[in-house]
Design a protein that fits this description.
There is one protein chain. The chain has one domain: P-loop containing nucleotide triphosphate hydrolases (Rossmann fold). By secondary structure, the chain is α/β, with parallel strands linked by helices. 40% of the residues are buried. Strand 7, helix 6 and strand 8 form a beta-alpha-beta unit. The structure holds adenosine-5'-triphosphate and magnesium ion (MG). Adenosine-5'-triphosphate binds next to strand 1, strand 2 and helix 1. The site of magnesium ion (MG) has 4 residues, from helix 1.
Length: 331
Amino acid sequence: NAPLLTVRDLKVAYRTSAGEAFAVDGVSFNLAPGEFLGIVGESGCGKSTMAKAVLGLLPTNARIAAGSVQLRGQELVGLSTRAWRRLRWKEIALVPQSAMNGFDPVYTVEAQLDEAMAAHSSAGPAARRERMGEMFDLVGIDRRRLSDYPHQFSGGMRQRAMIAMAMVLDPQLVVADEPTTGLDVIVQDQIIQRIRRIQREQHKTMLLITHDMALVAENCDRIVVMYAGQVMEAGREAVFRTPFHPYTLGLCNAFPDLDDRDRELIAIPGVPPNLVSPPPGCRFAPRCPFATDVCRRKAPPLVSVGPDHQAACHHVTRVADMRERARLPAT
Ligand code: ATP
Ligand code: MG
């Protein structure tokens, strides 16, 4: 089963006044067709930068310093603006963060969906109208509300309309970057359930980006845990059931109660490192209770710790012992 998306040793640097910041620094992962992959990590760890590199949406002060991003074997790094215009929406689509979703307040939702469709497909007005109706059915909004203006929708409805927008040209890959941030928890759950259902029913391949480990644990087939621009741990449900990286352990200990989602999610002391001059060894070492000299000297490689499960830590055995003794709360 050939992967749909292959990211290999990707490095993305931002020019800043303090020097180059490597927000993504050697990230690799595969995404199989029909898979739902979650990328999880604290604020600033490079999740959105990674997503923007995959979508060809990096700002002008960013450069891809190394690596490769391939969609069904086609290299996306270095594609021209024109080539990107052909790919975006039709092959790869984005569901943006809800707090800054992409609707223009002065046009109806229908006008905006229609514009995207008219620009990227040869379908005539009647076919486009039917397709927009189908998409509203899919996301659970009454078709009659297509002619509404964005402000006539609630926040949750606007975000569902953004999902409709992302799906309207039937892309193979859908990237959702914090799609529920800023919505209340009930609406968050509804949106994620909806995304999950669409992903299954329409056999879509999805990349969900979030800082919420519980969200990923409940919904994704596979998980990539990022920290300071690098992959700390990756795999299936073993990542949150039996984590091998202290950072993942930290994220899991901060597992929120389903009844108490407002609780502080991340309870790891300290802050992520400066990405212009990151620590020489393991980037998590300054915050890690397991860290020893070797961690401060040498960056640990990502090694196999189980079937389809990798972690980048010098002390995976000690972490596993500790985890067993502490007996993580079951999810
Ligand atoms: P969040 O959870 O807050 O969305 P994130 O994981 O998506 O965080 P990114 O937005 O990718 O993180 O940012 C990664 C790093 O790159 C951060 O240190 C951030 O300050 C820096 N960064 C992001 N955008 C730019 C930019 N346009 N110019 C310079 N630095 C940037
Ligand atoms: Mg982000």
